[in-house]
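yo, Lipoprotein is done. seq:
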Amino acid sequence: MQTRPLWFDSARRALAVACAGAMLCSLTACSMPRLAGRAEAERTMSPCEQALTLVNDHDWAGDGSPMMVRFVAGQSVPLTWIDVATYCPGRFGEGVLRDAQTKAQLSSLAERLGGVAPTVTPARLDGVTSAVAGTDVLDAMAVAEDRAGFALEVLAARGQTDGATLTLSDMHKTAGQQLVSLADGSWGAGSGKSGESGDAGSGSGSSSGSGTSSDDGDNGSTAASGSGNGTDNAGTHADPRKKVYDISQLLANPTTIADKASGQTVPTAAAIEMDCARAEIKAVTDADAQFDDTTLSILAALAAKHAYTAIQLGYPATDAALFE
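structure:
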């Protein structure tokens, strides 16, 4: 029987390996080339994802964390909820109200631990000289501020409503004028008559009316100081504020009132503050216009301060009350 030499089998195996290698190379050449940085980009979280990760941090949100651990971990959470309102589509209202709720929780922890409760700057737009937002949004927010300012002014004069002070009223009116100026593009053109309602019967003022540190990132450009609550308007934009509003329900219920959103009975001044916050949230969420991130953050911080003031004045900080 004729046998094949050993070199023949070796050559055949080598040829088979070479053919397989050639086929593999041809298949590789037809595959999709790797895009530089694609894998890295897929591993990078968006600003919204980063914010949601931080607010759900186990030390803060997890069950069973010691009070001190929660208090320390929670210091940055309110500002992060403003980031949620800014960067997460459809979650503006949630971010605003969670910011206020978190501040209330931190305040409660501070009281129990002997720590320092969160402080906020006045709910105004001092130093903000421009805004990328629709005029209708700024107008609606200005009306909400002006309505709250008028209601608190009248109730403060009557002296029956806890938390209703002229200090708080003036802060709302100032914010309303600032919003009108932003809509008109005439920042600083108002008459600057801050506190024109006087100081009779004003009491000590709301706790939200002062504070030395801000955790809401609400300052934009600092080219101008805040305008007053006067009625002058140098531009062509029509001032939407009515100055006088129907507050018959508030006058009939000067101490407590049924809150439409939550269905609960709440302190009247707290209801005014929360109504203002909800009106500002609605103005943003109903808008068709586009916002830039800075403007959205500023508007979120303004509404959140009103919501937090409402909680300080007795509005329930529970999910059932805050989230309809």
